[in-house]
Amino acid sequence: MDTSSPREAPAVRIRGLRKQYARVAAVDGIDLDIPHGETFALLGPNGAGKSTTIEILEGYRLRTAGEVSVLGVDPARGGLDWKSRLGIVLQSGTESGAMTVREQLAHFAGLYPRSRDVDEVVAAVGLEEKARTRVAKLSGGQRRRLDVALGIIGQPELLFLDEPTTGFDPEARREFWDLIRSLKRDGTTILLTTHYLDEAEQLGDRAGIIIGGKLVDVGRVHELGGAEARVPIVRWTDPDGTPRESRTERPAEFVASVARDCGGEPADLEVIRPSLEDIYLDLVRASGAEIIDTEEALA
Amino acid sequence: MSTTDLTTVAGTAAGTRRPGRLALGGSRIGYEVRSYFRSPDAVFFTFLFPFIMLGIFTAAFSSAGDIQPAPGMEGVSVGAYYLPGLLAAGMLLSGVQNLAIDIAIEKSDGTLKRLGGTPLSPVSYFIGKIGQVFVTGVLQAALLLVAAATLFGIALPTEPEKWATFAWVFVLGVGTSALLGIALSSVPRSGKSAAAVVIPILLVLQFISGVYLQFYQLPEWMQNVASLFPLKWMAQGMRAVFLPEDFAVLEQNGAWDLGWVAVALLAWLVIGLVLSRLTFRWIRRDA
């Protein structure tokens, strides 16, 4: 357990985290600090270890090795006071839901020492019209909004969001992002896993990419992959029909020289600045074919 | 979703305290009772079931004549004879059947995992479940007794001692059933299989413990087997309350043996407490 004052220590501190299932290492030596107030996005393919990592931090799973501190507490020994400072949005549940949206939120609000106003949270996730509807009658996307509402009702210092916008339509996702930004302004630390790279770009102060249980890159979202990975790419087709590609820091100069060599306008010319998605996919490809789906490996 | 900012409540972690376990347990009881009465399965197969069975027994055997403890002695109607057994069955269903299935489903559908991530103590959760069993069990017994007296013309005892016996047998029986239900909920491997695992066990128990079959007519070995489980003792305690004194001769020892009823139910209460304490988990950690 961290003995220093919680404000000086990072909200989340991970050193040498490992989680071993039978023959598979689902998490294979992760080090990470998330300072207070930061929104950190954890990216990676299915089965890369994102959910295992986040569930260890939430106290749901026990680690095989390494040190973990969440708000200054070891999650394997986190008590009720510790839990009252967390907000957890798990991957989708399928609860029977005999309660109405408002009843469910009011009940959960009562579990925390300083919860948010129920009606305000209902409004913030856009469920005002469904407030008196039973949970069982909600659509998938509405249920997900309720999941998020239940995660923030206790006014958490640290919010875990495990693939929060799966099943949202594009508009609902934008509204959800606004909600997360408002939580961020309040100083909430947020740890998010997502499949959507635009979501990480929109929300994350920093992001990490997990592949095969290892954190292959961590950094500010716009610096992931390093400067080299972001060098613009120029593509064109030579007059003899050969497709060409070159990377350069000075694309305008380079294109001019290509034009000169071709003796005119080069065919199929494009200048590309790699997006987060390109960089991410390059990293996943570079890691080879050993991306194992943990769930499948265990089955 | 709207873009309105959420207000931060002024209170800080240092200034506000977590709600107490008992207070939260109380709020859980209200929540659990409400969700119980909103699920048609629970209401039909657990809450109304003994009432429906009493109606069937009364109607089916209305012309069968009275059941007498011995030839020439004063008897009671078939409905009146079955009332104590069905009260005991109601306690068993409200406790064991209801909770064993309910908690197994909550475990597999993510309800418990969600609760396990909140500052809700398992103690408060248990208070909610056991409280729900008591509230629904009391309402169920009241419904059965009122229906017996009004619809089915069954005379209820008037002596206060009888009702005092009823009270302690009921409280012990329901408490034991609730705890055994929590313990049994860890047996089914999934929520889907819960009903298939739990209901047959309880059905067999009801047949050998004097709920659907007249206990004194069962072979002795079956009576002995039934004596190992709590339902037989609940039914015996209830017969002591609702049947005339003369019927005591039909019991295994020719007496109501209320002392043994108390011992057996207390023993099972302790077993239920220990088992539920040992087996309950919010989630199967790393299973």
Automatic annotation (TrEMBL), chain A:
Key words, A-Z: Antibiotic resistance, ATP-binding, Nucleotide-binding, Transport
One of the protein's GO biological processes: response to antibiotic
Membrane topology: Peripheral membrane protein
Molecular functions (GO terms): ATP binding; ATP hydrolysis activity
Pfam family, one: ABC_tran
PROSITE patterns membership: ABC_TRANSPORTER_1, ABC_TRANSPORTER_2
Subcellular location: Cell membrane
Entry's Gene Ontology cellular component terms: plasma membrane
Entries under InterPro entries matching the protein: AAA+_ATPase, ABC_transporter-like_ATP-bd, ABC_transporter-like_CS, ABC_transporter_ATP-binding, P-loop_NTPase
Domain ABC transporter: 12-237
PANTHER family cross-referenced by the UniProt entry: ABC TRANSPORTER ATP-BINDING PROTEIN
UniProt-recorded name of the protein: ABC transporter ATP-binding protein
Naturally occurring in which organism (per UniProt): Agromyces binzhouensis
Lineage: Bacteria, Bacillati, Actinomycetota, Actinomycetes, Micrococcales
From TrEMBL, chain B:
One function term, GO molecular function aspect: ABC-type transporter activity
ABC transmembrane type-2 domain segment(s): 41-286
PROSITE patterns assigned to the protein according to its UniProt record, in alphabetical order: ABC_TM2
One annotated Gene Ontology cellular component of this protein: ATP-binding cassette (ABC) transporter complex
Keyword set includes Transmembrane helix: yes
Residues that span the membrane, as ranges: 42-61, 81-105, 133-154, 166-187, 194-215, 258-280
InterPro entries: ABC-2_transporter (IPR052902), ABC2_TM (IPR013525), ABC2_TM_bact-type (IPR047817), ABC_2_transport (IPR000412)
Domain of life: Bacteria
Localization per record: Membrane
Membrane topology: Multi-pass membrane protein
GO BP terms in the entry: response to antibiotic
UniProtKB keywords: Antibiotic resistance, Membrane, Transmembrane, Transmembrane helix
Protein name: ABC transporter permease
Organism: Agromyces binzhouensis
